[in-house]
Amino acid sequence: MTPFRLRFFYGWSLKYLIAPGVATLCGLTVYAHNNAVIQPVLGLAWDCGAVTTGPVTVPLVLALGVGVCRIVGDGDVKNAGFGIVTLASLFPILAVLLLAFYHYAADDYYGQPNYEGVATNIVESSLETAQLPPERQPITGEEYAEFLNDPVLREGFELRFEGGDKRLQNGLILIDDAVIVIEKPIAERPSMVSGETWDPKTNMVTTLRQAILDALRAIVPLCLFLFITLYLILPDRIRNASELLLGIGFSVLGMSLFLCGILIGLTPLGTQLGSNVPATFTSIVPWGMSGLEGPIFDGETGGKIIAVLFGFFLGYGATLAEPALNALGDTVEKITVGAFRKRLLMQSVALGVAIGIAAGVCKIAFDIPLAYLLVPPYLALIGLTVISEEEFVNFGWDSAGVTTGPITVPLVLAMGLGIGANVPGVIDGFGVLALASVGPIITVLTVGLIVTRSRRNQAPELAEEAA
């Protein structure tokens, strides 16, 4: 008995499926948070729920929901097609967490007796791939010549004394017979990303070939499955076959160009931004460069706040650029008969994603456990879901899947991993997408409650005018 069947074949409300599902995930998250072995998997598991709803999955899933609802549903257009994207996002999280629990119970993860992988030294391997600078960067001949012409201590150099007799005289520290040493400081933090990852030179032919292969793997097997199902299992013929084949060809071509753009554009851009953002509050090796830079601001807390604001505006702008959000806005405006306008929905969703991404950057910058930022919002969402009307619950929860699309995911994921790799003490940068998904649900349901209350207040006035 699948959730899909309960949702449409039996006309179950989405609330009955979301509340127990979210409560279960929150319980597993709390348990995993208190387990030192499973805790690092939390960010990866929750982000898996966000990346499953992509440009291939969402159109097919929504079309499947609309088709089934028209045939076996109750005729209520408020339920048409909504809810499947939400369920498609929740169950991957559950699957990854259960997989982590299984390996933990079986004692077959790295370092345990039943581990069957390659026994390598993770610490040594990471040090080999890291760009470890020498202890001291040597002072060049040109720098020495500049010092001879103008013997002052320049920025980026340190001065120390070796030996000598020190004494305090007339409020001054005097050192006799000492050796004065001018040197460059030791880099505090090496780059944690290999040189190949940071190489800006890209082979376009190889990248395009890889993008085409990935597009074929994503689209062709799925279309073959649908064609076989329609032809062999369902007693129906394929209509407009030539148009379908042309559309599939355009999909493969478009997906290939899109993936190529991600590989050479959005992902490097997000990684570069994410890797350089920590320079506002800590010392890092800048993207594609050598040497140490930062912190830009004197106060560490102030620099972290600047990074959080950067994440906020990045999330806001990237969400408004999502093509799927425009389509969702049109659908919602039609379903609510203009009560929830497209512009209002888009602004609500963009604001929620911006707050979520800002919370994700805050989680990395201040090294806050992910469970502290995930469990309370989802528990609050259960209450909001129960008191909200069905129509707002349906598209409110699906808005999270629509926002984590082809523009937001590459930028946000690369940014989160880039920040996590450059902040001392942080294990990884996962979890930003998960927080970006919970934010829009809260904002949309909250605005939905306001719209519902406004409609109820206007109903008596309209009735009096009609009378």
Give a written overview of the molecule.
With 467 residues, the chain is mainly alpha-helical. It is elongated, with a radius of gyration of 28 Å. The chain has a two-stranded antiparallel sheet. A two-stranded antiparallel ribbon has the order 2-3. The two termini are 50 Å apart. 65% of the residues lie in helices and 4% in strands. The model is unreliable at 121-135 and 187-198 (pLDDT under 50).
SSE order and pairing:
Elements (H helix, E strand, L loop, with lengths): L2 H7 L4 H20 L8 H10 L5 H16 L11 H23 L15 H8 L11 H9 L8 E5 L2 E5 L2 E5 L2 E5 L11 H4 L5 H30 L7 H36 L23 H21 L2 H13 L6 H24 L4 H18 L2 H14 L4 H15 L9 H35 L1
Antiparallel strand pairs: 1-4, 2-3
Helix pairs in contact: 2-5, 2-14, 3-5, 3-17, 5-15, 9-10, 10-16, 11-13, 12-13, 12-15, 13-16, 13-17, 14-17, 15-17
